[in-house]
Design a protein that fits this description.
Chain lengths: 898, 241
Amino acid sequence: MRPKILHSSAVKRGSERFGWFITCMILALSLLITTEVLPQGGFPAGNQQIEHFPATSGIDGKPISIEARVLAPGRAVVYLRLYFKSNRDQAFKFVDMRPAAAGYVGQIPAGAVRIPVIQYFLIALLSDRSVINYPMRNPYGQPIEVLIRENTESSIETRPTPVPQAPQKTSTPENKNPREVSPQLLDKIEKLERPVAEEAAPASSGETLLAPILVLSPEPLSAVAPSEVIIAASFMTENVVDSSSIKILLDGRNVTGKAEISSAMVSFTPTQIEAGEHTVTISARDQSGAFIGPLDWRFQVAGSSSKADDEPSKNRVSGLAYAEMRREKFNGVNLNNNNIGADLSGKTGPLQYSASAYFTSLEDAALQPRNRFVISAGFPWLNVTLGDATPYYDELILYGRRVRGIQASLYTGWINFDVVTGETVRQVDPLYVTVAGQTTRQRFGTFKQTLLGLRPSFGSRNGFHWGFTLLKVRDDKSSLSIQDSSNVVQFGRVTPRDNLVIGTDIGLAFDRRRFEIKASGAWSLLTNDISPGALSADSLKKISDVDLPFNPQDFTRWFILNESTSPLDPTGKTSLAYQLTFNFNYFNQFLTAGYKQIGSEYVSLGHSFLRNDIRGFFVNDRWRMLRNRVYLTLGLESYNDHFNTIDQRPSTRLNTWQFGVGIFWDPNLPSFNFNFRNNNRDNNIDTTVVKNFSPEDNATRDLSFSLNYDFNALNLDHAVMLNLTNSDRVDNVKSAISGSVASNLKSISLRTRFQMPLTSTLTFATNDNDIAGGQSLFKYNMFSGRADYDFSRQRTEPAGLQIRAYGAFSSVSASGGTSPTAALPAGAITVIDYNQTGFQFGGALQYNEKHEFTLDINLLNYKDRGGVQTVVDGVPTFTSMNPSFKNSLIRAYYAFRF
Amino acid sequence: MRKLLLLFCWFAGSGLAFAAHENHDAKPSPAAPATPEKDIALVLKTAGQVQINSNNGAWQNVARGARLNAGAEVRTGDQALAAIVFTDDKSLLKVRSNSKVVINGKRETAASGSQRIFKTISMEFGELWAKVTKGNAPFRVETPAGVAAVKGTIFYSLIDSEGKFYIICLDGVVELINKLGSVLVKAGQTGTSTPEVAPETHPSTPDELPNWANDSEGNGEIEIEFQNQSGQKKKLKIRYQ
């Protein structure tokens, strides 16, 4: 919730009227939006999606918490990942979100949250290996953008100059000792006293005294001795504060139950507080229900822990352990899974350590590991990690690949060294099926794969740095034996591979990285089948005419060269990759530019998603205007896909330009975001000349508009989010089947906080798609409503006990169809028509901030009337493709914090 | 019948008018003792023996975090200190050793709509230091020898053994008032007040300027020499910690 500030009367009236207008518009839009629409294709097991309320803003250097729910009836969630990157990065990093009471929770780390913007999206892998993402369309190309503001002393903003009111008569104050000061003297004093000026006086902390919450202690950004820490703030609002609504958080922990609270003030004296920086957050509501704050500020505690403790604490451990149980019945079939996990972090003297574990019953020896565990310990200059690590060494070489083994980092600021070694892929046996005496391999096996990464570097990324990276990835060819007998039918082969990549990167940064230039280059060697072993130098010369000054068979520990090696001739530079980037952050501009070329044969198994055979440049500028109220984005990319035309296939020109405007005029006014993106793909193929390749010439225009607004109407606080997205792909190639696709996505969500501790969320979404110039139409319509009730805000239950309950309803309908296509028998029409109705209810119980128990019950009814309609011998026949089903899910979650 | 009706109307009207008059002039029934304003100040720090007495109850030791209602008496022992902050504008008050003050406050709504507390510190004896936020609620220090009305300033205040009231102003302006007159004490000046003489000011001498409010950890002793109009000098020894 963004900070709420008090209005002057005029602004408040205007805001209320705008709020009424928005309320009416929402109701009208809801009626308009609730029309036909369908998602792309029907889903046999009902609708699956990620529910998420996007973050809208963040503060530089502070982590951003992300929460989401995954709706996937009949499927378990293998993982839900949060991908993020700042303007400085070219590639996304990710963190795995962990199960929590409200679904899943994850955090964009503080180090990644940098001005001016951060982008993120969510991807969930389900147990049937399907993938769902948020945003639903093109998450990688059009992720969610979060505006990052500068880190100021206090999050509160001064309120506008108040409208002067008639001065009120001051009454004579109480006088405990009337004998000492006579009434006549008092009267004389009152006449002599000058009227006090009513202008606001700036307090030492930078906040104004007209702020609704006044920090009494400690002063923001001050340093305090541990024995003198007292956290206190007073409320300065016109309306009386509802003391039951006051909340105080210390470093994110709710300490309201330990604080002393009145309608005038809240204070908390910690008995134990460690040295270092701490953050306090205070929020409340007045008796009319209006929000006050939140206000947060930071302070430092000097020295060791509080002297109030008899035994000073040297060891500090915190964390949580959780367990989740899911009992699901999908159309009469039980789909159960259980998960347990724990996170722990602590400090013993200068040594810091952390551990994390996640174990799931979905773990399957026939699949890659779904369990996770990692233990990390070290000092600021040395760190060792055991278990599942995700190293980020170089964007061209090793970036975001999970390694189960050991990782160590030595950092001195002058000479640094990183090493990682372990298993990236585990061995999985192939699956064979024998039917009627005939054995068929249904699924390929997987070789065990190990990785070694080494990176010595010099300097620091905040100044000058120069690093070298070596990556060695090899499949263990003895870990998998492929049956190759004559009575086995198998299609294709899987072969053990070997990959060697070496590279260097250099960077220069000035003025806290406001000016930055980076360059990196790498060369790769990939052998696609190491099972025959390495060839000698003479054999290679016969094959490739390459004269090597050494015998490759002497270096099989590092690389294996044979006929399947790519490239055999390194002089062709086809496996060379390099990139140059430049950042400039001055004069309210954040300008990034770069050029990259990734060779057609460049492959790094340490970065699975790096595209090769591409080169081009990009320029992107984000311009802050009008005191960070308006943001303008301009971007241009021009790439040549498949620039190596040795195979005679023409390259494809990819040109993209984009324009965006973001308006964040005032926290009490709506914020707007508009983006336009145009992407052209053209391979310049004239089919009358080039016969063997398909022409490609299309343009995709994406328009998106979003509005976010927190407002008050009907004496209630609302938060509305409106999203309109239009994507239109125009295929300029004339063919029997047009490649044009048009999609319109509209969604609106309204979250309302009532005066009682009740919050409601209503969501409408509609998506309609036109594929192949009207040959297929899909329409989707979704409505959901949810109500959350917080019993703890009534303060009727025992201290330390918090109880919340919720109920939710959802309805999804889809319709559409396709005309006859070549893939279907002549005259066949696919009909999509299904409805899905769901009910959810549950609750959460939290005791003493240590114990949390959540129970969720989901009931789903899915009716599918879709299928394929054909005409057989003149008789129309309808074949149902997807059966109707009922689904029930009971989820229990328990977490213990320590 | 008509006369009876007129008579009735006359009596009813008189009765109504009398009732209205009574309501207008009626003195309020003795009200229950006014509930003192709550949470007008907060104890930020204590050193040594610091006690409070709320509502004529018993004296109780007080620690940091204690809340003060209007009318709270605060007294400090040898080598003690109490630092107090007011909740409306963060005005600071430090009460030194061997002092006794009464903290009073009345909440009111300023023209700007903000809440402020009309503060009065009644000092029986001892020493105090105050930093009053400018431009906010009135702040007074009352003693038998005079009253200091503060506008937004930093000053020391003390009462010597003879009951003479001193204001040593470091910043801003303090108006020193007694029944015989008033005087503005500006930054760098010392004001004095006794019941028999109108308040006076003179430039503060270096010896007069205490600094104990900035040194809360050390121990020491300072002497302040005062000179009245007749040239008579007196020294006041102040021990601080």
